[in-house]
Amino acid sequence: MTNQISSPEDRLMRLGSDRQEAAVRLIQAADVVRRRMAAVIEPYGVTVQQYNVLRILRGAGDPLPILAIAARMIEHTPGITRLLDRLEAKGLVARVRDTKDRRVYHCSITAAGLALLASMDAAVDEVDEAAVGALNPAEVSQLLQILKTVTAEQTSR
Amino acid sequence: MTNQISSPEDRLMRLGSDRQEAAVRLIQAADVVRRRMAAVIEPYGVTVQQYNVLRILRGAGDPLPILAIAARMIEHTPGITRLLDRLEAKGLVARVRDTKDRRVYHCSITAAGLALLASMDAAVDEVDEAAVGALNPAEVSQLLQILKTVTAEQTSR
DNA sequence: AAGAGATAGTTGACTGGTCAAGTATTGTTG
DNA sequence: CAACAATACTTGACCAGTCAACTATCTCTT
């Protein structure tokens, strides 16, 4: 092993203030969590984003316009189109044109999609918990409050 | 188990425990921060990931083997190759084959790369700070500590 | 009713992340 | 020294995020 990586998790470049370090580490930590989720979700044949769309559709109960789905995701519109293309190809969602406003397509989760989600629920809930499992309840609520502040600032600024 | 979506700004799908919510919000907050950084960095003609590589190379001082760069990123190897391809095409980095071990390529930042970074430094430092700017110093240090815990758990588990 | 503008969604082109499989080179062992 | 394993990357194929430009449809004004 000829690599000169000394401290395991400190492979960060130079860091300025604590705030700068916090910003970088926030992104790193999120990537770690994301990967853990992917490891659980992808064996079921859907990606994390595809899974999120299915969850949104199940949660909504009713079919949703395409852009309403995009609005519930962090993502921008063009990505949703192709995401739904793939989900539709797998038979997990269906798109139907609105009869009144023919610009609108309503998207709904199919029975196959619901069945898939049902089969995943336990494993996914577990990994969500485990993702921040090293934190005690007080830390979890601190984290939640801090993240809300960060996200709120972004939209207001 | 309550699936209540009560707070106004949260249009998240059903959330189970606080831990599950924290995991989801962590990823959301990181995406918000990432986008803010992209908005500052990309006008300079490089992506956030490309910028990170340049920072790593500048920080290292010496040329680094390709895989040493990958190890400092959150990313896996195959991505690095193409990332460096693009940076090399822009003349911001250079790859040189090691004379002793001909499997190894050393990658270094060029003068143009250093100049680009220098022109970006102030703006980037500023956005890093602003990314979590809504937090007071106590919250920043709480966040840092919590994120370290989260990340540490991931690697150990 | 005709045209201007807004809205819903798609398409194209590029960057990036990921896996699996490939090539080139070196080190090791029988 | 020949075969085999390990190392350092590269390549191919797929999914996703993002921007700008496009089509189709609707609404509003005149």
Report on this model:
The structure is a homodimer of 157-residue chains. In chain A, helix 1 (18-41) packs across helix 5 and helix 3 (66-72) packs across helix 4. Chain A is 62% helix and 8% strand. By secondary structure, chain A is mostly helical. The first copy, chain A, has a three-stranded antiparallel sheet. Chain A is built from six helices and three strands; from the N terminus they run H-H-E-H-H-E-E-H-H. Mean pLDDT of chain A is 86; it is low at 1-14. At the A-B interface, helix 1, helix 2, helix 5 and helix 6 of A face helix 1, helix 2, helix 3, helix 5 and helix 6 of B. Chain A binds a DNA duplex (30 and 30 nucleotides) through helix 4.
Structure summarized in a few sentences:
The first copy, chain A, is mainly α. The first copy, chain A, has six helices and three strands; from the N terminus they run H-H-E-H-H-E-E-H-H.
Topology of helices and strands:
Two copies of one chain form a homodimer.
Chain A: H1 18-41, H2 48-60, E1 64-65, H3 66-72, H4 77-89, E2 93-97, E3 105-109, H5 111-131, H6 137-156
Antiparallel strand pairs in A: 1-3, 2-3
Chain A binds a DNA duplex (30 and 30 nucleotides) through helix 4.
> Percent range for helical residues of chain A?
55-70%
The number of E-state strands of chain A comes to: 3
Question: If interface size is counted as residues with C-beta under 8 Å from the partner's C-beta, which chains form the largest one?
Answer: A-B, 65 and 64 residues
Tell me the distance between the termini of chain A: 47 Å
Cα gyration radius of chain A (Å): 19 Å
Query: What class would the helix/strand composition of chain A place it in?
Result: mainly alpha
Tell me the strand percentage band of chain A: 5-15%
Write out the strand line-up for the largest beta sheet of chain A, numbering strands in chain order. 1-3-2
Poorly predicted parts of chain A: 1-14
| Shape annotation of chain A | globular
Mean pLDDT of chain A: 86
Please state the oligomeric state of the protein chains shown: homodimer
- Output the number of helix runs of chain A: 6
